[in-house]
């Protein structure tokens, strides 16, 4: 096992979280496909909503930027060549940044709502 394989595996987990699919999933015709075959093309085209888990609540605008970040990171982790995959430390940094942006946006959004309500 190498760290590049760990990054690839983590990318699969991110795709599972994002899409609600299992690593080997059936399409509408009943054929079995790997999660990367079903989700990566949608994400690469920028069709994030089509790739999202249909059972998820529709994300708020402030959440969508972090969701897009996660999806794009997952695609990077799934790069065919190991040299094109990020290091796990880069993955952690990327996820930490996305979480910080989401937390900051939620805090600002709540503050704006409280201010508008006169609290």
UniProtKB/TrEMBL annotation:
It comes from the Eukaryota. This is Uncharacterized protein.
């Amino acid at each position: 096992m190498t760290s590049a394989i760990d990054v690839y595996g983590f990318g699969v987990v991110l795709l599972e979280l994002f899409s609600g699919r299992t690593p080997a999933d059936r399409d509408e015709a009943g054929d079995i496909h790997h999660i990367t075959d079903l989700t990566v093309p949608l994400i690469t085209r920028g069709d994030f909503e089509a790739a999202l888990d249909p059972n998820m609540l529709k994300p708020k605008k402030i959440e969508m930027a972090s969701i897009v970040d996660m999806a794009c990171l997952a695609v990077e982790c799934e790069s065919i060549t190991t040299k094109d995959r990020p290091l796990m430390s880069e993955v952690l940094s990327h996820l930490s940044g996305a979480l910080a942006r989401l937390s900051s946006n939620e805090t600002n959004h709540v503050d704006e709502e409280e201010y508008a309500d006169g609290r």
